[in-house]
Amino acid sequence: MLIESQSQQSRSGITVAVSIIAIIAVIYGMQAARVILVPFLVAGFLAVLCVPITRYLERLRIPTGLAVTIVVVLIIGIMVLAGTFIGGSVGAFNERLPFYQERLNERVTDIAALLGQEVSVGGLVEMIQPGAAMSFVANLLNGLQALLANFFLIMFAVIFILLEASTFPSKMQLVLKASHGDPEYFKRFTNSVQRYLGIKTVTSLATGLAVWLLTAAFGLDFPVLWGFLAFLLNYIPNIGSLIASIPAILIALIQFGTLQALMIALGYFVINITIGGVIEPRVMGRGLGLSTLIVFLSLVFWGWIFGPIGMLLSVPLTMTAKIALESSGEKSSSIALLLSAPDRVKSRDESSRSG
Q: What pTM was computed for the model?
């Protein structure tokens, strides 16, 4: 009996060690193959957003091929329109970046002098690095431009995914039935992912539009760029909107002064509280909430693996993993609970106690 217990412990230890090695190998494999993986991930998320539109067109008795063509033309049109408006702003911002950093250094030094701090420009800049936010924006936009180099690969991947979308659920149900799995699992999973990405895209568009109107009303340089940045970073809950506001506030400090910069910061705060704190939770519900710590860790983790694009995809990727864990069974849902926001954990604990 003792020998059997020891052998079982030994086998379980080997299994854990092999699993850890496999996870490490997969992580480094993804990092090594990110040039190929990132375009396909972007294509996958685009396709998930477009599947409901394709199905709606099919219900109108439009053939699948024509429906996919309409959706792809719509995607290309939106990208061309966005590129036309944003491309010029990105180029102009990159050209003026050294000027902004120099002026920001002067502003920070002036503020420090008003506060009675006797510090040199070099020491102050080295201490707080005010130009880091500007560099982050430039690196993020450069990463997006590099992604557009794979535009045709992304579009072809979207086309093939949409063409297969109508038959893929039935294939997965047959596979799950054959493996004695839950045939409704794939349907629950895809519906949850589509719902999350759809709601997040609508709220991100609303946030980007509101930021564009705010910055344009103040006459801030590059309002379209700040609206686009707010749209992108709103996919990162809690901290994404904060990151998006910092460069615009710093530009306002350079262009106008302290009072206008504070007013723009207040405007960002009102927008994020209204859309991110009130409207989005009511529409989406709390069931999909992630812990703030998990959001930050996922930002670092996926950014390390996939670069700037990984930072934008960090929460959708983590959200996809969480939904998959929640939908696949009781044991996996316990793991998903570790990723959840505190209010989700408290509500589940209270319900288990009352039950």
A: 0.72
